[in-house]
Amino acid sequence: MGFNQPVVDTSPKVSDEVRKTTCYMCACRCGINVHMKEGKVAYIEGNKDHPVNQGVLCAKGSAGIMQVNAPSRLRAPMKRVGERGSGEFEEITWEEAYDIAVSKLKPIRDEDPSKLAFFTGRDQSQSFTSLWAQGFGTPNYAAHGGFCSVNMAAAGIYTMGGAFWEFGQPDWDHTKMLMIFGVAEDHDSNPIKMGLGKIKARGAKVVGVNPIRSGYNAVADEWVGITPGTDGLFILSMLHCLIKAGKIDLDYLSQFTNAPVLLDETGGSAEEGLFLKDKDGKALVIDRNTGKLAPFDGKGVYPDLAGTHRKAGVTHRTVFHHMIERYMSEEYAPEAVAERCGISAKRIRKLAAELADVAFNQAIELDRPWTDFRGKKHDKMVGRPVSFHSMRGISAHANGFQTCRALHVLQIMLGSVETPGGMRFKPPYPKPATAHPKPHCKVTPGAALDGPHLGFTHGPDDLCLREDGTAARIDKAFTWENPMSSHGMMHMVISNAHAGDPYKIDTLFMYMANMSWNSSMNTSGVIEMLTDKDEDGNYVIPNIIYSDAYSSEMVAYSDLILPDTTYLERHDCISLLDRPICEADAVADAIRWPVVEPDRDVKGFQSALCDLGARLGLPGFVNEDGSQKYEDYADYITNHIRRPGVGPLAGWRVGEDGLQGGRGEVNEAQLDAYIENGGFWMEHVPEDAAYYKPFNMGYQDWAVKMGFFDAVQPYIFQLYVEPMRKFQLAAEGHGERQPPEHLRERIKHTLDPLPIWYSNEPENLADQYPVTALTQRPMAMYHSWGSQNAWLRQIHGHNPLYVPTKIWEENSFEEGDWARVVSPHGEIVVPVAHMAALNDNTVWTWNAIGKRKGAWALEENAPETTKGFLLNHLIHELLPANGDGMRWANSDPITGQAAWFDLKVRIEKSDVAGQTLPDFAPQQSPVGKGPKDLAWKLGK
Ligand code: SF4
Predict the structure, then answer these.
(1) Which among 451, 485, 602, 805 would be 20 to 30 A from 774, CA to CA?
(2) pTM for this entry
(3) Does ligand 1 lie within 6 Å of residue 781's CB atom?
(4) Residue 53 CA: which ligand 1 atom is closest?
(5) Residue 30 Cβ contacting ligand 1 at under 6 Å
(6) What number of other Cβ atoms are within 10 A of residue 668's Cβ?
C-alpha cells in the first residue's frame, strides 16, 4: 500500500499587501512588515533589510496588532466635566479643543510665556516639540530624560561625546569580552539580543553585573550580583588594579585623551585645576619631541603623559599624574571595597585581570590606514576587544553621573573606545559637549525663547538663573542644585508647580507621560497636587492639557484631552536631529506612516501641534502672511529646514546631480521614497572612517559632507571634565556667580572633575531601612504601554515582589504569602515570590505592571489592579529630613536625574492579602471597559 505525501503550503499567503514601517512597541525602533488583509492589520513580522533588527522581532513587536485594536484607545478630543481625577469627560470636536487650548495659551504667551510648562514623555519627536516650545517662548520644556538615564547620556557626552544605545554600541563583530552593568531589558532591545547571540556563538565572554540575575544576566557566562549603588566603586577598584599592573593603553591616552593636558596648580587661585592654555585657548601639553609646551592638537605634537611645567615657582602636572595619584590610593584597593560592593577582592582582581588579558594579550589589528587630526598617518587600526554596555541600572542613583563617568573612563583607560572590538559610536555621534548648544532661558512676552532649552553647561555663566539668582525654569534644571541637568527634570515639574516654587504656572501641557501613576515618584502625593484647590476653590495648577493615545491614569487628571493616534496610524520621523537609528557602520534614519487610517476622531499629537502653533501664531509655525506653515507633521517632516541643506530626514534630498543622502534641498516626494525603501534610509560609513571617529580625518570629512556638522571638529576624550572644576571653583568662592551657602560643600564634593564614588545610604536612612528595592523592565512590556495589550498582559498581568533566599528565610515566607514593604516615605502590601539568583539585600519587581482601577479600559478586578503594584508609592521626590532643616532632592546633585534605585525599605510578612495596597478608588473610564474576549477574523 502506498502513501501519498500530503501537499502542504509552507508559505500560505497571509496578506493582501505588506506595508513597511517602524515599530513603536518599545523605544528600540525596529523595522516591521505589517501584513494587511481586508484593510486591517493581520500579522506583523520583522523587516529583514532593516539596519536595527535585520528581521528579528520580539514579543512586543508582534503584539502590535493588539495595540492598534486596544479597547483603551481614546476616541475623540474630550473636556473634563467632573472633578479632576473622576474620569468624567465629554467628547468634543477638534475645533472646540483648539479653541479651549488657544483660550488658555494665547493670554499667557502674550503676558508671560513661562506660565506654560510643556513636557513630553517617551516620544521620539523632541527636535520638533522643542521647536514648538521655543516658538511659544517658555523656558519650561523638556522630555523624560531627567527621570530615565540622563546620567548615562550626559556623562558619556561630557567624557567622550556619546554613550550607549543611540550614541554607541559594542563592536559586536570583534569584541571578545562584554561586560554589562545594570541592564535588564534595555532600550537597545533587539540589537543587544542579536549581538549577544553573535558574540556567544564566537565564544566571547559575557559578564553581567546586576543585583538581579534575569534576562541578559541569566544568559551571561558570569553573573556578578553586586550591591545596588556600588557599581562606581567596583569600577574604580578594577581601574586601581589595572593601573597597578600597568595594564592601561598609554599610547592611546597620550594621543587621544586629555590625560597629558597640564593642570594649573597655583594653589588658591581662580584658575587652580583648570587647563593651562595658550593665547588661542588651546589646552597645553608637553611635546615629547621638543620637551616644550605645545597646543594639544599641534601638527606632529606627541603629548607627554608625564610632562610637568614650572612657572612662577609652581610645578604644573598633567591630568594623568592626578589620576594615577587618585586611583592608586588604597581606598580603591579590592580589599577596601569588597564588602561594600558584595564582591570578593579575589573576584575583583580576577575580572580586572581578564579585562587586561583580552585588551592587551588578545589585541586585534585591522589593516586599515588612517590619518589623525595632528596629521599623523597610522598604517593600521589597533583594537582592544573588551566592550561594555549599561543604561539605567547604574544611572538612576544619586551617585549615577559619577558612576557612569567611571565606566566611560575605564573604557578609555583600556583604549577600547572607537577601536576595533571596543565601544563604537553611531553617527552623527561622536559629538562632544562643546558641539551641543548651551541651555537658553530668556523669556520675552509674545516672542520666542532666545534659543534651545536644553544643552550642556560649561560653567556657572551657563546656568539658567534669573537676575535675583532664582531658577529660571519650573523644574529648576541648570541651577546650583543640579548644574549639569542636560535633559531637564520632568519629575520635579508637578511638585514645583504645586508649591509655586520658583514660581506659579498657569498651564501644564504634557504628552505621553503618565505622571499620575507610574512616571512619578510619590504617586499619591502627585495625585493630591493635581487635584488640590486653593482657598477660592480653584485648582492650584489651574489648567492641564494632555495628549495620549490611551486611557491612561493621567487622562483623568487633565482638563482637556488631545487624543493621539497609535503608532501604526501616524507619521513620525526618527531623525538625525533627534534620536536616529544609526549603526556604528552606517548612518540611518526612518519614518512611521499611517499603514492604517484611524477609525476614530484622533490626530497625531505632532500634527495637532502644527495646527495649534499656527493658531497661536508661533514663529516657525506660520508663514509670513500668518497662514499655517505646516498642514500636518508629514508636511513638517518633508519641508522643515533646520540648517542649509539639513532637514528632519537625510535620505533622498535633492542635490545638484539628483537625489542624494545627507545634505540637500527639500524633496516633496521624500516620504514616498522612504516608504518604497521599507521605511528607512541608510548609508555606510567609509571603511577608513569606521573607527577612531573623533580623531580620524576620514570620518570628520565624511561627517561634514553628510551634514552632521558644518566644519570638521576633531576632539580628544575628556577624562578630566574641566566644566565641573569651574563649578567647584565657584563653590570655593571664585567668580561673580556664587552658589547659595548651603550648597557649597556639596558642589565641592560631588562635582569632582575626576570620577569619584560616594554612598547614598545615610541620606536614605539605610540603617533603619536596610534592603534596596528595585524595578526592572520586562522583555514583554515597555513601561505602561503594553499593560493593556491583550496578548502581552497574559505574560505580565501582575507582578510579585521577588525576595532573595536570606530575607525569604528570615521572614519564614511561603509561596502565596504577601508582605508589607515600608520605606521612609510610605508602605505597600504586595504578593511575594522567592528568587535565589538575587543579591542578599535586594528585593525587586517588574516595572509599571500595576494599574489604577478604571484606567486602560480594564475590568476593576483585573489582575493588574488587584495583584499588580508600583514601588512608586514608596519613593518621594525629596529625601527624608536629616536634621539640617532642609529636604534635599532625591536626585543626582550634578544632573538632577531621579534616584529611583536608591530606594531603601524594610519588609515583613503581612496578614492582609488578596489586594495590593494602596488601593485607590476606581476612575470612571472615558472609553468604557474592554470586552471579555478581543477576537475577530480576517479572510476565510
Ligand atoms: S525590540 Fe522594541 S522596536 Fe523592536 S520589535 Fe521589539 S518592541 Fe518593536
Answers:
(1) 485
(2) 0.96
(3) no
(4) 4
(5) yes
(6) 10
